[in-house]
Amino acid sequence: MLKHKRKYSINYIQPSWDGKKIAISITSQDKEISEIIILDIPSKTRSSEVIKNCWPSGIGGIHWLPDNSGLIYTHIPEIDKNSKNYILNKLVLFIN
Q: What range(s) does the Peptidase S9A N-terminal domain occupy (predicted)?
């Protein structure tokens, strides 16, 4: 579980092709930049990994690979809105 007591909103959901996992993008305190968590449906568990600094509802979405072995999303290294590099130098990442 997420250890802090913030309120989160779900801003993007993408099930895997086989329906066994769901990638859920959550955001806190009305921020646009999100975190992605992965739920395993058969075991009813959440992956311990939290993918940070992404914005699937605004840039690129979340895409499962055809064999469900991982997903592709856009990572945003600079999330400070006051930085001149905000939302620059984005990366497309693959997680498996």
A: 7-86
